[in-house]
Amino acid sequence: MAVVKVGQVKKTLSKAMEYICNPEKTRDMELVSTNLDGEGKDPLRYAQRFMEQQQDVGTGRNGRGDSVLAHHVIQSFDPDDDITPEQAHQIGMRLMTELTDGDQYFVIATHVDRHHIHNHIMLSPILISQDKRMRMQKTTLHKIRTISDRLCKDAGLHVLKEPKVKRYGKSRPDLYTQLKGESVKESIRLRIDQSVGRVESFDQLKQVLRSVGVFTHVRGKYLTFEDAETGMKFRDSKLGEAYDEMNIMVKIGQESLECISFNKSMIAKQDSKNVSIWVPGTRRKKQITVPRERLVIDGQTVRAWLPMDSDQVLSDRQGRFVQQIPTEGLYEYFTPPNLNIDKLIRNSFPQVYTANPKQRRRLMAQAFKVEEVNSVVTQISTVREYLLEGGMTSTQAVDAISQTIRERQADLQSLIVASCEEGLTVEQVESLDAQISSSEKQISDLARQVRALRGREQQRTRTDDTTAQRLGKHRGR
Q1: Which domains are assigned to the chain?
Q2: For the residues 428-452, what does the mean pLDDT come to?
Q3: What keyword terms does UniProt attach to this protein (predicted)?
């Protein structure tokens, strides 16, 4: 059986060609073929020929340019099928030959670096005989899958039966994905988990992930992971709490961590192994030295991830010992990390899956109404627990809950460290996964309490301001 997916390349066609033709994935490009004449094994030249062909074609309807540079077809074969890379490549060639009938250029590359053999095909959107663009429609995708299924059946491979799909049920691509257990998110999680144990720094992790088809982008507080095969991008929060920057660094270092951040202008000196940072508020009389592998660089901002259970040494301008303090004690000088309450809550917000846009909007509106009701209930129960029964002010309650969140995050880090240990049994892995999920839920529930208290305090502030304004107007009469 072969699962077929189709996407579009709208930017950086040359990078896409280089990716599918990667010699490490295609037996030194032995498993790369094309119907472009005289181009040999040169992915950059393939991309150039595609682009040259499109330059001679009109802009399309209403004068608007068509941004599709190539259609990206992925044909994945069942690992249970007894198929060789050469057979998979030949099936891909036959699929494209029958589909295009020689009227479109294509490049096909068979990848053998994963647990399942799969073909990557770049298909030019230009019809050679008509000198115009081919529009990828639902009927086209159905035709590709029909041909692929027939070729697989002829080769003695399994074929996925056409499911009976209700109008607003899951689409056939979704069922292909579900039946084969193929999830882009899960695939990214798996590649991250497999890579973190092989590296000693965040920069090394980015390089290793790139080699297995995952691009890592640092955007402010967030990491974004991009799947090279599909072009799909996911923020760390969409993959789960265990895949944000803090917990990625925990997995790399195998220890619980604290974070300090600083501007590049605070760097006193650096070499290939270490970076020395001026300690804020000391008039550049104290500095701390951090190994480079503990740094994450985000533009002009640098974040250093330091062991929570270790002491940090401060030195003077000449590098002589000044004092030794716990890692948490650095927050006397550096700004403590902000708790991203909205992100913690968002991780547990209900996801709505439906193919019907109107139904999706209606369900999302209902979900938001439920969320508003839950917010009111949380606020009432939190006020009763902390303010009425506990005798705290709103600020004291927020501080108390925030401290609990930090403690829970430390517990979560410990669980993540434990889950990275080698030699764990299936039962131990399942138990740790369950504990991680439970810990994430506790953190999300606590974050809701903080937001409820902050909302109440903001509401009281607005009320007080309104009252003061009214009194001011009254006095002025």
Answers
A1: 2-167 (3.30.930.30), 183-254 (no CATH), 256-338 (no CATH), 345-472 (no CATH)
A2: 75
A3: Plasmid
